[in-house]
Amino acid sequence: MSYVLAVLTSLQATDVDKVLLKARGRAITTAVDVAEVTRRKFMNNLQIEHITIGTETIPQVDGSPRNVSTMEITLALAS
């Protein structure tokens, strides 16, 4: 709920009409939950404008590469 509050606070600013949520790995489910709870329970005029998915290659301690999924969700106020 603290992330939902952060999104709501950001959108209350007069010059802000979009919020970008970024997540990697296991945090992707949290980002999706934040977007959906904010949109369904608190701001009916909020819509998902764009979703980007991808993969980052991160070196592990032993030097071998590890692929980590990434996601960006753009939330925008409906006009």
Lay out the secondary structure.
Layout: H1 2-12, E1 18-24, H2 28-42, E2 46-59, E3 65-77
Antiparallel strand pairs: 1-3, 2-3
Helix pairs in contact: 1-2
Largest sheet: 3 strands, antiparallel
Q: Indicate the percent of residues in helices.
A: 25-40%
Rounded Rg = 15 Å
Question: Cα distance, first to last residue?
Answer: 26 Å
Number of strand segments: 3
CATH homologous superfamily placement: Alba-like domain
Describe the protein in words.
The chain contains 2 helices and 3 strands. With 79 residues, it is an alpha+beta fold. It has a single domain (2-77), classed as Translation Initiation Factor IF3 (2-Layer Sandwich), CATH 3.30.110.20. It has a 3-stranded antiparallel beta sheet with strand order 1-3-2. A hairpin with a 5-residue loop joins strand 2 (46-59) and strand 3 (65-77). Helix 1 crosses helix 2 (28-42). The longest helix is centred in the middle third of the chain and has 15 residues, at 28-42.
